[in-house]
Amino acid sequence: MDRLKTLTHRSSVRKFKSEPIPAADLQAILRAARQAPTDASAQLYTILRIRSPKLRHQLAELSGGQQQIIDAAEFFVFLADVYRLSELLRRRGERLGNWPRTAHHFAITDAAIAGAHLAVAAEALGYGICWIGGLLNQVDEVVELLNLPQGVLPISGMVVGLPAEKPGPRPRLPQEMVVHEDAYHEYAPEELDAGYAAMAPFSRKGDWLPLLKHYFAAGGVMEERDAIYGRAAARQGFVADWPAAAARAFAAADLGEALELLLNSDWRGVLFNHDEDDYTAWLEKETAAERGDGNTPGEALAAAVAGS
What we know:
By secondary structure, the protein is an alpha+beta fold. It is 45% helix and 16% strand. The chain has a four-stranded antiparallel sheet, sandwiched between helices. A three-stranded antiparallel sheet has the order 5-6-7.
């Protein structure tokens, strides 16, 4: 019952006392996180504990000036991580297969589940937590700042510490909107209105729409994050049609975006050829052309771009 109350009465904390978390509690919290479920025992995540005050300040700035990153006793960055798995396989003479889309899915899932376990454990011990989604505002710079190897990508941050406030639970959508039975059902207008009504207390203005519009509507925060995240994911090796080396050399999130960027610049056409196991890409201008070869169309195009 105490566990259930912890889950159903929780709320995010953004103001913290200056006291550190005792070592025994910290180890208990981290152990709970490591015991989180994971598909096929792979544990495709890493928890990066940020202790450096300088790093804390830099990450707070990259996350949109979030003071709680600086004030909280602990700040963790949860990483989707297939690099460690690659190293484990290599140690025994194997190599990681080519499954970037599935790696992206399961690594994010593993990291999120581990983060949820850490959060529940911390709150059960009386600490406050808050997820830091703003870490994705400039995730490409976070990758560079933390010197993350290929195959590792931040998914979120989390602050943990003794709360200096006691916010009440925030509203949630009605159960009928988020728990469907047997099949996904379409939403009637009155059901959508009920959703807005349920979430109205979330805003001081009594209307949930401005918040949704700010983050999720056309021109909102998520659109700004998406391009940055896409390029970072490609550079870290999580995009199937655009090799990490190509993404690092040419600021595109995938092969389609690369083609769009090229055709909107001085290049008038792109031609691909396939000969046995190799691909060739030609970039054409009025008076010039560049050729690139590679094992995939993405590699060939990147080689052509590099020669231009």
